[in-house]
Amino acid sequence: SQTIHQWPATLVQPVGSPLSLECTVEGTSNPNLYWYRQAAGRGLQLLFYSVGIGQISSEVPQNLSASRPQDRQFILSSKKLLLSDSGFYLCAARDSLNQPQHFGDGTRLSIL
Amino acid sequence: KQEVTQIPAALSVPEGENLVLNCSFTDSAIYNLQWFRQDPGKGLTSLLLIQSSQREQTSGRLNASLDKSSGRSTLYIAASQPGDSATYLCAFENNAGNNRKLIWGLGTSLAVNP
Question: How far apart are the first and last CA of chain A?
């Protein structure tokens, strides 16, 4: 079965600093990968998804970007963080469109 | 606009009760309906996935139903236990070809008291 690893678990960053969150997947190959943000009082917001290496689709315009340098590696980045980037970031993966998504334990990002 | 509404937002019950969580959605052309569980500060765990052609799915003490015509799904939890305490999220996957994605509700926060 799939295992989704995310790190770090918590992160405190100043406004304007860069960001790099990493997600790696075990137990599958060529998965669909997803980055979500969960803010207090709001549902999960899909940020990016990827169907293969180097293929990234962006759902919401923002100062974040994503990359997939390897089949089971998905990275969320920013050059300059905003206060509004605070939230709980979740990485998810699934084998095919007929399967449920499996989630990592998330990264709690606080911007000061 | 595609939306998912979950009622109630919070629920507190004594151990042993059978309970029902409700989910309503605006798009009848869904691909599937999914229920997840989220423990505090953790990621989500998939509980049940109901394909659009199905009416219900069961896993242990959990049963989820789907009524596309009315835009509703329910999650039934039998003989609730304190370990069932968590937030339960409902999401439907839209039927948008290669641009399919999950549309999420805000969840129902469940507390089962011993």
Answer: 38
